[in-house]
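Summary for the steering committee. One of the milestones for this cycle was to obtain a three-dimensional model of the protein with nicotinamide-adenine-dinucleotide bound, which we needed before selecting residues for the alanine scan. The sequence and ligand used are listed below.
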Amino acid sequence: MTSTSARPSQNVMRPEKDRFLARENPFEEMMSRFDDAAQRLGLEPNLYRILRTPEKQIIVACPVMRDNGEVEVYTGYRVIYNTSRGPAKGGIRFDMNVTLDEVKALAAWMTWKCAVVNLPFGGAKGGVICDPASMSNTEIERLTRRYTTGIIETLGPDSDVPAPDVNTNERVMAWVMDTYSMHKRHTVTAVVTGKPVAMGGSLGRREATGRGCMFVTREALKKLGRSAQGTRVAVQGFGNVGSIAAELMAKQGMTIVAVSDKSGGIYNPKGLDLAEVLAHVKANKVLQGYKGAEAITNEELLTLDCDVLVPAALENVITEENAPHIKARIICEGANGPTTAEADKILNDKGIFVIPDILANAGGVTVSYFEWVQDRGGYFWDEETVNQRLERIMVNSFDEVTAMAEKHKVDNRIGAYMLSIDRVAAVHRLRGMYA
Ligand code: NAD
């Protein structure tokens, strides 16, 4: 941050009277944290205006022939939030709840997340309003291809690189890559990440987010002078992020005392046998019915007597109602946005060490970056190399976020936002203002 930057005047920042918007609008909710960090950084008003506005918002109609011969027209969005540091990076979700405001919020979030781990990427997000559960595979394929074609001008390894998100997966990414490549008349693997390993995906990508959570939790324990041995961990969400974080934390010597999924939670103060729990989930799809532990609710899991809490399922689960009762010393936010702004204040007052989502779950986008690098180089790394490089980035980023938080006497979340906004702003200043 240069010392010449002027503190933005009050009338440039969002007026106090508009703060109620944050509750109504996911973009304003996300930007309330941006505003706080920008103000503390003394971001100059011109840059503040630029960084508070998405670069590009695309709305496309996606006509799709249903299997019964009827054409349905779906609405798709792609928001490119900021590309000052490099190509835009961000997932595509297929969901009935997709809105332009949500896509804008998630695109901004990707901008800060990529910057906090210092990847040479900007931020983007895409979404299509649809109910994939009611669609056949061929309908989802046609929708993916039509949506990809709709946003094709923005896509490209140098401009905009999507990835999987809610209800999209490596199969969908393969169709995006194929559609883009057909239009370009040659195969372009680096246009998406999260692809199957057989067609340019990266080893270690599937485990990367949970592995990143383990690295930053391990660093937090070290910082607080605690040993991994005997540290009791509760994990909400036993999907990709939660189950892998739990397994890898257990390998570090931590004791996983509780896990949960949408069917409820299980608790054993002496520690769960994760191999047995995973076998149960493999056979039954859900945790419910597991016999080797006490059944608890998702709400009870959050306030259990434990040392580390890992929310790795949904947004807004840690609220002003339950935050006063949380006993964990460390919260590692595997999920995106698990803590409300009101709860943040309570956690901070209680002295809970929060590893904020834009840092804690950045392992996924970091290995997506490795995938893009490998595709562009046409040379693929072994899994050990991927994991070592991921570890280096996560540990450095943890140190940088906590140093920023300590320097400015703010919590880790605002520290993470300050670090990332400062990095994006610095590039804008160097590039100069084309205004
Ligand atoms: P997933 O679908 O693999 O797993 C989600 C888990 O949450 C499942 O166990 C599901 O049963 C559980 N769940 C769903 N509803 C629940 C509820 N009401 N209460 C409790 N548990 C519930 O998803 P994932 O990929 O593990 O993602 C989890 C979170 O992490 C999301 O917020 C996602 O945005 C975030 N995230 C994921 C990645 C990634 O690489 N997968 C990267 C960054 C952030």
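Key point for the committee: The chain has two domains: 2-30+41-199, 208-360.
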